[in-house]
Amino acid sequence: MDDSILLAHGSGGKLSHELVEKQFLPFLANPALNKLDDSAIFEASGRLAFTTDGYVVNPIFFPGGDIGKLAVCGTVNDLAMNGAKPQYLSLSAIIEEGFPLSELAKIVKSIKKAADEAEVNIIAGDTKVVNRGQADKLFITTSGVGIIPPGVDISGANARAGDKVLLSGTIGDHGIAVMSQREGLRFSMALDSDCAPLNKLVAQMLEASSNIHCLRDPTRGGLATTLNELARQSKVGIVVDEAKIPVKEEVKAACELLGLDPLYVANEGKLVAIADPADADKILTQMKKNSYGRDAAIIGEVTTEHPGKVVMKTKLGPSRIVDMLSGELLPRIC
Amino acid sequence: MEFCGGHTHAILRYGIRQLVPKTVEMRSGPGCPVCVTATADLDKAIALAHLPDVIITTFGDMIRVPGSYSSLQKAKAEGADVRIVYSTIDAVEIAQANPKKSVIFVGIGFETTAPTIAASILKAQQDKIKNFYVLSLNKLTPPVMKALLDSGKIKLDGIVCPGHVSVIIGSHPYEFIPRDHRVACVISGFEPLDILLCIDKLVEQIEKSEPKVEIAYPRGVKPEGNKKALQLMEDVFEIGEANWRGIGIVPQSGLTIREKYERFNADKAFSVSLKPPREPKGCRCGDIIRGAAMPLECKLFRKVCTPESPVGPCMVSSEGACAAYYQYGTLENSQVT
Amino acid sequence: MCLAVPVRIVSIDGDTAETEIAGVRRRVSIAFTPEVKVGDYVLLHTGYAIGVIDEAEAEETLKLLEEIASLSEVH
User: Fold this and answer.
1) How far is C46 from chain A (nearest CA, A)?
2) What is the ipTM of this complex?
């Protein structure tokens, strides 16, 4: 077999079948997928959560992960953020002609590993190949279905005044890890992306308390953007304490170097929870038992003042507004 | 008044205005090199981007600034090869890697950056790189301070002197300020306590009526500055007039490439025809840049002009007063009146 | 232009040096600070060391800043 993707791999003929049978199936095998029917059939009852996301990260391999791991974790996490137990994923890959098969193999293995950890099966898939130059190496789209246990009602609109705001760990790790690989920025550090499936962490948190009102993962746009989204959706104000927000020293240093604010840098393995103040401490204790929540902290609370806005008490004392990310996160020089 | 975008940013980020007594009023001066770049100069950079076989390299801050009709980002979206670099070193490397293209570096900045641009020209010469050019838009800080003070249009008691510009130029170039204008001068660092220390020293000078130039950032700034950096600047650049947005032509305030390094001068190597520059209607960046107005006094601020859809440079550059106000505003000044 | 960050010199190689701060490493040009030694702290601006940080002065300032910080806590 050739060592890179050819247009013929996408044409539906022999090479396409070979691609699926040799590159994907052996790793992702499960009864539904193995049937290779036009659609996967499964049974489910109760409230279902459904989500989709496209993954175009560049570079596709970064410290701590790759586009495959991201594609699984991202969608698993979106389901978990509504309290759903993720069940099945679909995966669509658009591959650029000339993409090395060895790299594809690494990514598929990564997908398998992430899916196993999250305990989900990929039951439907599709691959397309486009001409060289028409896609940046590889784009992946995953959709996911999960089941929401009865009695769980989590939504960005549910925050109430007095609720506590919890954060599951350090911010900025993913964005900085990815940036450290980009050309032109050239700094090196031993920092991995925090890319991780959070569904088990969420399940444990739900065991500790049935009064978790909101869950959200601060991906693109960072913690600041997510807090603003929640404040707007719930029509409440949020106040956070800068001193309580965990940031790794290396992330702080890299942000200083690049002129970025960690509050706006992407995370792929963290969550924000807004919960009844009476349960906040026991939720925190539970979070810390999970390796993805070991640096968890209560970082603030919800208020009736300044609805829709997020205010941060700075380390020095005065408070300032924390707005959503506007425009792109560009490294600044000045 | 502070004359350094880094200070503008820090003052707002750390809420310094809330910590100083109400008797101290702080105004932002022309310290943001992106904001003070004349529209016509930016139009030139954009026009150069559209030339065939040209790669434009620029610091990230410039890419979204609206020129008269377009921006470098729009030019990129239209197919121009515009690349963000972190350092002039990267720009030279891009030139080396693309010998068939002309690589033009958009040289904005003050005295902190000027030596790095000088160094890049010298490196290109040393390595016999024939396709590297600089569009020199570098400006100098003390001359614009002089211009603002001479104009009498703004009454200042003290100046927070730039921190890293002073690492390069030292403290002597500011001596005309207390001497000719009786204005207090303190060079400040960037940590919140550095800035408070600086303001404390300024107030002390003002109260004692003893204006002078003081270094409140001694760990980084020496009175004589960085001689090696100044030497390199002197070798590569000569001083001439420069066009400052919002202020106009300021004599002896800009750096142009000397004749002996002419072949690296983008102005000499390329010619572009430009439509007349125009300022966006209602934009008060000019007034804000020279401290004559605050962002809240601009009718477009926050209503029409936002970081997503900026009208003028003060909102685009993260060092610009408007962007800093928008991002770090207090609850009071974030209300749209 | 002002963003400059203090970094520590780890090793020197001609007119460049490997620097480090809180685990982040970067190679910088020392064209303007040829006198640096390993262990010195320099101010890094767009890939160049623009000045050497004077340790004695840094300590003095730190003491002063700590004084101010303790005063502001009283308020």
Assistant:
1) 7
2) 0.86
- Convert the pLDDT of each residue in A137-181 to its tens digit: 999 999 999 999 999 999 999 999 999 999 999 999 999 999 888
What would be the CATH architecture of the domain defined by C5-74?
Roll (2.30)
Q: Could you tell me the residue ranges of all domains in chain C? A: 5-74
Under CATH, which number does the domain B5-29+141-215 receive? 3.40.50.11750
Contacts of B32 in chain A (CB under 8 A): 334
Contact A209, A282 (CB under 8 A): yes
Identify the three-state secondary structure at position A167. Answer: strand
The whole model's pTM is what?
A: 0.85
Cβ neighbours, 10 Å, residue A120: 25
Residue A120 main-chain phi, psi, to 5 deg: -120, 155
The type of residue at A31 is P
pLDDT exceeds cutoff 90 at C17: yes
Alpha-carbon span A172 to A263, nearest angstrom? 7
Count Cβ–Cβ pairs < 8 Å, chain A vs chain C: 41
The per-residue DSSP string of B118-184 comes to HHHHHHHHHTT--SEEEEE--B-HHHHHHHHHHH-SS--SEEEE-HHHHHHH-SGGGTHHHHHH--E
> What is the C-alpha R_g of chain C?
15
User: C2 pLDDT band (50/70/90 cuts)?
Assistant: low
**Euclidean distance between CA atoms B154 and B183, whole angstroms:** 12
Task: List chain A residues with CB under 8 Å of B35.
Answer: none
What percent of chain A is helix, strand and coil (3-state, nearest 5)? 35, 25, 40
**Cα B283-B284-B286 angle, rounded to 5 deg:** 115
Scan for tokens 């009071």, then name that residue: B332
Q: Which domains does chain A have, with CATH numbers?
A: 7-148 (3.30.1330.10), 164-322 (3.90.650.10)
User: Kind of pairing, strands A65-66 and A61-62?
Assistant: antiparallel
- Return the partners of chain B (3 or more C-beta pairs < 8 Å): A, C
Q: Which of C32, C43, C44, C55 should be substituted to probe chain B, the one whose Cβ sees the most B Cβ atoms within 10 Å?
A: C32
Over its C-alpha atoms, chain A yields an Rg (Å, rounded) of 21
Task: Classify residue A96 by its DSSP letter.
Answer: E
Closest CA to C46 of C66, C32, C63, C67: C32
Nearest chain B residue to C56, by CA: B219
Contact at CB, C26 and A187, closer than 8 angstroms: yes
- Parts of chain B belonging to CATH 3.40.50.11740: 39-139+227-269
Question: Rounded to whole angstroms, how far apart are CA atoms A119 and B88?
Answer: 48
Residues of chain B with CATH 3.40.50.11750: 5-29+141-215
Topology of the domain covering B39-139+227-269: Rossmann fold (3.40.50)
